[in-house]
Amino acid sequence: MLWLKLFLPFAGAYFLSYLYRTANAVIGPVLTQELTLGAGGLGLLTSAYFLSFAAAQLPLGMLLDRFGARRVESGLLLIASAGATVFALGQSVAELAIGRGLIGLGVSACLMAAFKAFSLWFPPSRQASLTGWIMTSGGLGALAATAPLEFALQVSGWREIFFALAGLTLAVAIWLFFSIPEQYSQSKPESLAAQLAGVKAVFGSAHFWRFVPIGLTLTGGFMAVQSLWSISWLMQVNGYSRAAAADHMAGMSVAMLTAYILIGLLATGLARRGIQPVMLLAAGVGLSLLMLALIATEALSQTHLLWIAYGTFSSFGTLVYSQAAAGFPVALSGRVNTALNLMVFIGAFGVQWGLGLLIDLLQQLGQNPALAHRSAFLVLLGIQSTAYAWFCIASRRPR
């Protein structure tokens, strides 16, 4: 069946991408103790993934539009496998950061290549549902990086885990290369000048900038919180053990997974009934802001439920990709999605490292770790609220 043959290899790759992205939330305390890291150092080390991921996005868009998803993603996954090996062997912060950066570069195409392939093989009416299904595989990867990873750390070291991930990534690269069907175009490939002109057209579009602020601060900010600062918050502010904090993240990941499945099942049908994906996007990210506000102010004591709700509503932020791409020709889809992904991962890098620097600074100014975390989260909440206001205002303007 074409759907499964096309979908499953991309799903496996995106599973690994999300697992790599969020793994440091659980192994972060171990690295902090082993390498004597501060919050800023841990934030920089972890965010090296986001930096290299973001740097790859614009050339990645041109590569996907010119050479196709199959060849580009399978080749980059080889780099991810090498990066996991370097990370497993690393003895210093610099070596670990290089490994983490190579992993980020290697998995930089996992979602964008899937979107590119889907745009070629399936009609626009199915894109929102396909987004939900591919994000479901990412949700499974996020789930694997919580309580299961915590259990794995009890029976083996983090280095052995990354050696295993390197082998699994290599296997997925081979699977993807030999499984994905090639779609040949009868038209002559675009020249480099034409491709760059397409990138310029994307960045010059008011439609594109309608979605950039929420991608930068809300989608990227959620990535930063989920992949590192969630565990730190639960341990430093709420006083949980690492295992209890990982259980919170497992619950959030299950909720995200459920939300992605529901998006996949219902988005197309809801659109036929007049509830467009952009409405789901606006409602979801708005409610995610409310949940972050409740978390940051500790207004409610039900921490499990708050983090579950935060993950659920933040999941709707992934619709930003299909909604941004919907305003452009299919031939530009790779460049649109990677341009937006560039913004998302710049946001993730900035928030992840920036929160660490801010927490360190506030502690130097006399705040205890719990108060420093709370203040940093409130700053993030203010920035995200401003971006959401921009999106709502821009959505009311004539297109």
From TrEMBL:
Localization terms from the record: Cell membrane
Protein name per UniProt: Sulfoacetate transporter SauU
Highest taxon of the lineage: Bacteria
Sequence ranges assigned to domain Major facilitator superfamily (MFS) profile in this UniProt record: 1-399
SUPFAM superfamilies in alphabetical order: MFS general substrate transporter
Keywords from the UniProt entry: Cell membrane, Membrane, Transmembrane, Transmembrane helix
Molecular function, one GO term: transmembrane transporter activity
